[in-house]
């Protein structure tokens, strides 16, 4: 008599417990590298088109206050994923952070050396004795140094000035003759809009090994997580959508936050970024990571690096 | 060095003095006079307006005519001594004595300062700062500073009231000596002090306040407090003060 | 007299510092915080030693910015206070400006200053000056306006001109207040210099901190922070001693002791 209600209660409880995973989604916090911009295209598209939800993921995209913090927070277990830069990954791993790259967002370098087209710097060799502005990312002197060497100069031949993200204003106001750390899809368009077009020099064309500008990193402890694998799959789907429907994708992007994102600069940047998204986000070019790691070691930015396998993987 | 110089002492007559304070009329249409070359003491219960009247004479408060018998104006011709010593703590005693000269951009007279310090009993303390002096010594320094100004008129607001009885007595002696020949208005709450120092003594009473007729003790200040005449007059003053207090309440 | 019983200040300071380091180490042990977020004292000490030359060079730069900012800000603030005291009209118009200079977060003004004054020392000195302008001016002005009324009566009786009374009585009387403002300024000036460096510079402890942070050299970042803190404390100590020396009558009067008792 008291058994039947109890059994019924137990069954009901089991049913509820059993069905819980089916309806509940796994939460993933993604710390962006910067404020939302076209570089984050696939993430925004995936979010807006419900692709994460369809894969059973509840994803929050967080803009950082301090751009250097996201990977550290992921390493400390405070968030699952962060958008980072390949060069930054090498340096942080060298410091012992348990980070692993699981996907690539932007598969080309974006970092460039930019001067004003109507300025005195027509070629890299013209930088001798001039001022170069940078915003602290940690490795600009490695990039710049290598580029200068290709043209017979060294870092000692230029004066590095920290302009802290005000790259375009510093360039336009003439306080510096060139800037390093400008993203070719962004700052160049910014300069165009201000009617002060820029002239760009690309690191990978001037002796720096090619690298992935934007990657997705996670904590080593989360590598076996199925949610992370599903995340990377969604990234691929979103990128495919952008490649196949670039105009619609732009509409989706700008509609996600019209006040913040719908402007001419973003529109132009979107156009220039579409071709740079990793078409196969999960795929890893191991050689690339080996080469760039060696490059950083050579330039003295890292002392030793563990094997690439420990901090860059291809998820199945 | 202490005698008033060639300028002859002059009397001061105050006419139609008027001062309101916190909504109450302290005094109105008040007339009184300070005799030339003499010390006039002003007694009265607290709050009657003695200090205010003194400040009115100095031109710091209130309205009314303050006329000098030689036809000149009073501002600029009086020396001021308050209940606090008003010594500047960052200056030495010497520096404080010569403050007036400094403020006016005049040359300083070190010899005179030293002599005055001697007279008030502070010989050799010229290089000390006020913090190292006792209350009595500081007030002596203030007295020296007041005399350093060498003005024909001296206005004093209870200058010795914060001192102990012995020091007060000594300073009264020194003051009587050094103020001789100047026109002095001395506000005090101590009838004995008034009797020792004053040529004329008024009691201020009522609201609005009035001055009674002056008491004129015989003899020159400083007077002996043990003198029977003085003791009698002290009793009289105390009576007047008591009724003054009742009248002012 | 002001005889301070107990141990001398530097020894006290050392003990406090040791205590803080102990707490720091305890926090690291107990919370298990990773070294790239908060390194332990040992790691920071290592970094201090390893990069001593680099730290010293940048410290010198930042120190120069702070000192110049302090000097200029003090002069400017002192002069402003005197002018504001002298002319009521000036006070009415300048006071809101003063308040704004304090209320607007320096972080917001920093980029403007850098744009106008460049990335060199000038903008950092300007930042430091700006950040101390209000405390110094307000303190001195306050002191000036609170002159002992008895002294005003005395000055009147002595036929002092307004300027003469200001120079000989009111300004010296306001110096203790000015000193208070100066102490606050000394404590805050480093912030101005460092914020200026963050916004745009190629040298200085602030810049070094950013750089180290970006490269994940958290131990160096904290080492720079420690040097900055030491610099600020040393500066405060020196300025305080100088002020006490310059205003001997304040200590003599024993007012401080009575207040602190």
Kindly list the characteristics that best describe this protein.
heterotrimer; B: 249 residues; alpha/beta; 6-stranded mixed sheet; 3-stranded antiparallel sheet; 8 helices; 9 strands; 35% helix; globular; disordered N terminus; C: 261 residues; mainly alpha; MetI-like fold; 2 domains; 12 helices
Helix content of chain A: 40-55%
Termini distance of chain C?
14 Å
**Radius of gyration of chain A over all CA atoms, rounded:** 22 Å
Mean pLDDT of chain C: 88
Could you estimate the helical fraction of the residues of chain C in percent? over 70%
The unreliable regions of chain A are: 18-22
**Mean of residue pLDDT values of chain A:** 90
Largest interface: B-C, 27 and 26 residues
SSE string of chain A, helices as H and strands as E: HEHHEHEHEEEHEHEHEEHHHHH
Structural class estimated from helices and strands of chain C? mainly alpha
**CATH architecture group name of the largest domain in chain C:** Orthogonal Bundle
Number of DSSP-assigned strands of chain A: 10
Characterize the quaternary organization of these chains: heterotrimer
Number of strands of chain C: 0
Spatial separation of the terminal alpha carbons of chain A: 53 Å
Shape descriptor of chain A reads globular
Characterise this structure.
Chain A has 316 residues and is an alpha/beta fold. Chain A has 13 helices and ten strands. Chain A has helices at residues 3-23, 41-48, 51-54, 69-75, 86-94, 140-150, 167-172, 187-193, 226-244, 246-256, 258-261, 264-273, 286-298, and strands spanning 26-31, 57-62, 81-84, 99-106, 111-116, 131-134, 159-162, 178-183, 198-201, 214-219. In chain A, helix 6 links the parallel strand 6 and strand 7 (159-162). The longest helix of chain A has 21 residues, at 3-23. The model of chain A is unreliable at 18-22 (pLDDT under 50). Chain B is an alpha/beta fold and 249 residues long. Chain B has helices at 50-58, 93-97, 99-104, 110-119, 135-148, 165-178, 191-197, 228-248, and strands spanning 12-21, 24-34, 39-43, 63-68, 78-81, 153-157, 183-187, 200-205, 210-211. Chain B has a six-stranded mixed β-sheet, sandwiched between helices. In chain B, strands 2-1-4 form a three-stranded antiparallel β-sheet, with helices on one face. In chain B, helix 6 (165-178) links the parallel strand 6 (153-157) and strand 7. Chain B starts with 11 loop residues before the first strand and ends with a helix. Residues 1-6 of chain B have low confidence and may be disordered. Chain C folds into two domains: 8-38; 40-260, MetI-like (MetI-like fold), CATH 1.10.3720.10. In chain C, helix 3 (52-86) packs across helix 10 and helix 4 crosses helix 6. The model of chain C is unreliable at 256-261 (pLDDT under 50). Chain C is built from twelve helices and no strands. Chain C has 261 residues and is mainly alpha-helical. In chain C, 84% of the residues lie in helices and 0% in strands. The chains are: A alpha/beta (316), B alpha/beta (249), C mainly alpha (261). Chains in contact: A-C, B-C.
């Amino acid at each position: 008599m008291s058994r039947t209600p109890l059994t019924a209660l137990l069954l009901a409880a089991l049913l509820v417990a059993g069905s819980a995973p089916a309806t509940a989604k796994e939460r993933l916090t993604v710390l962006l590298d910067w404020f939302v911009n076209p570089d984050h295209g696939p993430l925004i598209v995936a979010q807006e088109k419900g692709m994460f939800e369809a894969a059973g993921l509840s994803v929050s995209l967080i803009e950082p206050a301090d751009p250097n913090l996201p990977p550290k927070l992921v390493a400390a277990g405070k968030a699952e994923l962060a958008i980072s830069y390949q060069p930054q990954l090498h340096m942080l791993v060298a410091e012992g952070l348990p980070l692993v790259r699981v996907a690539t967002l932007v598969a080309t370098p974006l970092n460039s050396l930019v001067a004003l087209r109507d300025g005195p710097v027509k070629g890299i060799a013209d930088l001798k004795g001039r001022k170069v502005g940078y915003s602290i990312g940690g490795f600009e002197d490695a990039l710049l140094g290598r580029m200068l060497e290709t043209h017979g100069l060294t870092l000692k031949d230029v004066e590095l000035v920290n302009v802290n993200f005000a790259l375009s204003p510093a360039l336009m106001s003439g306080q510096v003759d060139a800037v390093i750390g400008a993203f070719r899809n962004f700052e160049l368009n910014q300069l165009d809009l201000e009617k002060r077009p820029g002239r760009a020099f690309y690191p990978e064309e001037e002796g720096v090994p090619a690298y992935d500008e934007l990657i997705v990193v996670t904590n080593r402890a989360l590598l076996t997580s199925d949610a992370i694998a599903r995340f990377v799959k969604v990234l691929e789907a979103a990128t495919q959508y952008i490649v196949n429907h670039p105009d619609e994708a732009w509409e989706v992007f700008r509609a996600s936050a019209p006040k913040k994102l719908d402007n001419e600069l973003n529109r132009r940047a979107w156009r220039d970024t579409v071709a740079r998204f990793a078409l196969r986000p999960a795929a890893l070019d191991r050689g690339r990571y080996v080469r760039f790691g060696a490059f950083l070691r050579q330039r003295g930015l890292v002392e030793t690096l563990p094997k690439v396998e420990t901090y860059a993987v291809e998820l199945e | 060095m202490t005698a008033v110089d060639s300028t002859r002492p002059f009397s001061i007559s105050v006419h139609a003095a008027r001062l309101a304070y916190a909504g109450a009329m302290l005094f109105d249409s008040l007339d009184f006079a300070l005799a030339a070359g003499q010390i006039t003491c002003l007694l009265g219960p607290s709050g009657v307006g003695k200090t205010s009247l003194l400040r009115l004479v100095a031109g710091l408060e209130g309205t009314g005519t303050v006329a000098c018998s030689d036809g000149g104006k009073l501002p600029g011709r009086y020396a001021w001594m308050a209940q606090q010593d008003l010594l500047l703590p960052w200056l030495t005693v010497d520096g404080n004595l010569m403050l007036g000269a400094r403020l006016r951009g005049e040359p300083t007279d070190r010899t005179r300062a030293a002599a005055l310090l001697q007279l008030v009993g502070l010989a050799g303390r010229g290089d000390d700062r006020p913090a190292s002096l006792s209350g009595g010594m500081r007030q002596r320094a203030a007295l020296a500073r007041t005399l350093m100004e060498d003005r024909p008129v001296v206005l004093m607001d209870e200058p010795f009231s914060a001192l102990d009885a012995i020091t007060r007595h000594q300073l009264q002696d020194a003051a009587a000596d050094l103020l001789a020949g100047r026109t002095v208005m001395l506000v005090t709450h101590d009838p004995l002090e008034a009797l020792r120092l004053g040529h004329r003594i008024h009691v201020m009473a009522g609201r609005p306040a009035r001055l009674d007729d002056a008491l004129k003790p015989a003899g020159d200040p400083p007077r002996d407090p043990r003198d029977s005449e003085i003791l009698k007059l002290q009793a009289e003053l105390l009576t007047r003060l008591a009724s003054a207090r009742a009248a002012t309440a | 007299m002001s005889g301070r019983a107990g141990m001398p200040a530097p020894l006290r300071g050392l003990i406090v510092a040791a205590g803080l380091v102990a707490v720091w180490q305890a926090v690291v042990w107990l919370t298990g915080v990773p070294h790239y977020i908060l390194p332990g004292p040992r790691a920071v000490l290592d970094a201090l030693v390893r990069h001593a030359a680099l730290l010293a060079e940048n410290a010198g730069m930042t120190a120069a910015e702070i000192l110049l900012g302090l000097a200029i800000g003090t002069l400017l603030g002192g002069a402003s206070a005197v002018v504001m005291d002298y002319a009521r009209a000036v006070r009415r118009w300048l006071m809101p400006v003063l308040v704004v200079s304090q209320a607007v977060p320096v972080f917001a003004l920093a980029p403007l200053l850098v744009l106008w004054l460049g990335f060199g020392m000038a903008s950092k000195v300007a930042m430091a000056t700006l950040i101390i302008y209000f405390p110094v001016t307000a303190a001195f002005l306050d002191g000036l306006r609170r002159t002992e009324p008895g002294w005003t009566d005395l000055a009147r009786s002595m036929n002092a001109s307004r300027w003469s009374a200001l120079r000989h009585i009111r300004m010296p009387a306001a110096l203790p207040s000015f000193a208070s403002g100066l102490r606050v300024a000394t404590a805050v000036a480093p912030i101005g210099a460092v914020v200026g460096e963050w916004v745009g510079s190629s040298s200085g402890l602030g810049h070094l901190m950013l750089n180290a942070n970006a490269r994940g050299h958290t131990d160096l970042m904290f080492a720079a922070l420690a040097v900055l803190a030491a610099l600020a404390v040393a500066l405060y100590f020196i300025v305080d001693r100088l002020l006490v020396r310059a205003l001997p009558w304040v200590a003599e009067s024993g007012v401080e002791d009575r207040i602190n008792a």
